[in-house]
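Handoff note, outgoing to incoming analyst
You'll be picking up this chain. Sequence as last confirmed:
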Amino acid sequence: MTESRLLLLADAVLAVHVLIAAFNAFSLPVIWLGAWRGWRFVRNPWFRFSHVGLMGFVLAETVAGRLCPLTVWEGVLRRAGGQGWARQGQSFIGYWAGKLLFHDFSQLQFGVAYGLFFGLILLTLFLVPVRRRGKILPDMTKEEKP
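Most recent structure output, in case you need it:
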């Protein structure tokens, strides 16, 4: 495989990584807004449990001191394409997607932020319950009227 194709593939991995991070980051406010607006999809179990699972994986890998497999894969592709980790000479998409995704925080700072965010996601599972077998569990955010 040519170096340019390897770098293109690395950009594709980075783009998927950014999309997954956006899903993790924006799903929670969408769930809250959707609960308020009555959007049914925010109670979909596939959507909600995918969100919990992905964010739980991110938190677990951070606590374990591991890099995300997508970060590792992207790095391997960039090195194989002659670019290395420093990102010199990378594409427009690779540059801006990397700027959005990668920040210079300590592992402890990431762990605390991810842990708090994961806690909010779990709390939201109870406050805005998922739909089960065609039913929606009672909404804990609304008071029952006599």
